[in-house]
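Need TetR/AcrR family transcriptional regulator's 3D structure for a figure. Predict it.
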Amino acid sequence: MTRNAADGNGKVSEARSRLFDTATRIFYTEGIHSVGVDRIIAEAQVTRATLYRHFAGKEDLVLAYLDRADEMMRGQVAAAQAASGSPVEAVRAVARSIAEGIQSQGFRGCAFLNAAAEFPDPAHPVHQTVLRHRQWFLDTVTDLLARIGDAPADADGRHLVMLRDGAMAAGCLFDPALIADTFLQGVEGIVQSRLQAAPVD
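Structure prediction for TetR/AcrR family transcriptional regulator:
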């Protein structure tokens, strides 16, 4: 079955949701390789048959976990953009949403960077999923920055992604409020640089 399996009425079963929610929590807080399916099954209080009825195996469950993280990030960015009245405010809003995440309870870094560290083989499906998510995020922030001024935005987009990566890594090692503030200052520096480079009418 696919990792979007549902019951006959098109609704995701309660057991599948419990299994998926348990796996998502443990994968994020403790890592992927260190967690076996027996632990997930036990904590979700489901049978092994239930797991394999909804997921082909652990790898399929990991991919579903990353799919959820991707959907959440896309929704977060879309909401930030929708609430903004200008490209500048959109970039700032996206940055603030990331900063808020870094300061949230239970923050353990970026799910995708964490997964990439555990699955370094570029050909592995998990690594490929990470790369697709990162390409989407890079494309998204580069497009937002391109709307500020007329200068090419590729380098600024990469700069913002690197700032975000550093903040996500440092946010669970040092004071998250300080890291978030430093990140926001860095993004503001990119914004101001593009504003100053914009031609004056």
